[in-house]
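question for whoever is on the cluster today: can someone run the full assembly for these? three chains, 536 residues total. i dont have access anymore since they changed the login thing
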Amino acid sequence: MRYKQIMMTAAGFLGIAIIVAACAQRGIPTGGDLKSGYFYSMPETQAMQWDTEANDWADFDNPGFIWVDQGAEQWDTINGEEGKSCAECHGEASSMAGVSTTYPKYNAEDGKLRALQDQITDCLVNRMKAEITKDWKWEGDLMLGMTAFVKLQSRGMPINVAIDGDAAPFYEEGKTFYNTRRGALDMSCANCHVDYPGSWARADLISNGLPNGYPTFRLKWQKFGSLHRRISGCNKNIRAEPYGRGSDEYTNLELYLASRANGVASEAPGVRR
Amino acid sequence: MAKKPRVKVSRKGGLVEIKTLISHKMETGLRKDSKTGELIPRMIINKFVCKFNGEEILSADMHSAVAANPYLAFYAKDASSGTFDFAWTDDKGNTVTASADVKA
Amino acid sequence: MSEKHITTAVLGRRQVLKGAGLGALAVVGAGLSAKDAFATPETAAAYLDKMVGSGGSEGKINLKLPEIAENGATVPITVSVDSPMSADSYVKTIHLVAEGNPNPELISFNMSPGLGKAEISTRVRLGKTQFIRAAAVMSDGSVHTGSKEIKVTIGGCGG
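^ ran it for u. tokens below:
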């Protein structure tokens, strides 16, 4: 039994090494010691996310693009009392290349840390004077679609969040959350994702817990969903009361997770098991 | 806002590769509402039809075990030019359509 | 496949055992019993027999499935049949069935010589580790069958 486990883990790492090498060859940043959840997925799940041979990112097999398409449509759609669309201020969506990789980001105007969703909400509410309908809430179809559409413009670019200066206190909060034991199982994020990546939790290969594929189409959810939804699932698993999606706690944690992923390619819209 | 079906038609190795993806929950009718305990009624896309220049080349009878957001990929013969029409019909009889042209 | 349903069905089975032990069989009255909670190799075969008639020869069908499905909710599957797909020799229908799902039927394809090759990919829900069976009816009326086992994991990190 023990032997089988060791062999499976060894095979897992060998698989990861091969795919990392293949990706690096194609110019996709794979980061340092910490690897994207992509490398902890089985080949069929990886194939569903993207076709590394294709010369554009419009991967057809990735169901997340159903939501991305909606985001793309919204980019050019006039919304709100100001009569503006996203394109009116930002121009072509390609102008967003390299933007999402710096989020979550400190915002000097309100002194808060903003996830990309917070920035989109700010645009909708303050610049466009648009109504935040159900579809524009954190886990709404349009918010997921727009977040992923903006992130798509940075797909393949390395995550690059700032953790110093004004962002430092938020980073520290996130780091503390990450290392704090919680819930009936009394476990911290680090207990799995730092202590046991590459090991099996029943049939799941524990990953480094990086956020670079979110929003992601999750096989289990059978739909597209946010990083905060995923974190909330982790918290429930260790029998801890989850925080809200978009809460300060989770946004700070997102910054800490993103800092662990600095240098790793942004993959959103991803596909995960 | 309705999500549009995604369709990709491309020439590949002397054939026409067709991929389709449509957003749908594919509610099985076997799940219970977590609050009320009542069974959630079945609501799936049960039929897919692909026609080329008006003639059916493939249809699929789908059951509740087809995954959410039904995906189908298949190959048509490479005809010089024409139109592929796609139709998805759900349990209530509602049909969503899409089409794609191939040129010589 | 909804996990809730699996849980319900499995509980149902346990209830049968427990219920029998306690003599409280009324609990089972809800209609969930081990027999009808999931398809079996027999019910899957019966469904195929109904669709294509009994018999048929093994072969000509290739089923491509992951060896292990990371999550049973979305499992890619490709079925192909050895056929020229010409006007006088083509595959008319392919039926895919599951031996361990709540219902055996997965999806059926009605095909024509307009298809360039007899190969179709889709994604299905699979409740547990089981055999997938396929039957193809050719234009000359002959029937071919094939099957493949797939392991479906229940992950440690539900989330």
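summary bc i know u wont read the tokens: Chain A touches chain C through 24 residues (CB under 8 Å). The radius of gyration of chain A is 19 Å.
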